[in-house]
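Hi U.,

Before I forget, here's the chain from the pilot set. I'm dumping it here mostly so it's searchable later in email.
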Amino acid sequence: MIYRFYPWEETLAATKHGEVDFHSGTTNDEGWMLASQKIYQLSTSFFRRKDTPYVTRESLYNKRIGTIDAYYGQLAKKHSKANAKLYNMMTMPR
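Structure:
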């Protein structure tokens, strides 16, 4: 297998145009694409420094959260219900 990494919309376009054989991530059929049976499920956690207090949904309010991808950042923000500031760590200068 060869994996190619694209932003969310680009991976859908690459699948639609035959640049890749499969798209991994969505479980919903599209007009031009059919989903297989689920092959795995994802869960996620917030990782923190050891000297940072334990993370709860409530403790995320107004916190800064680094993400690897805007899509996953928006999912984290939606499910944490926090007024958090998201930072895409792949595009931030160090």
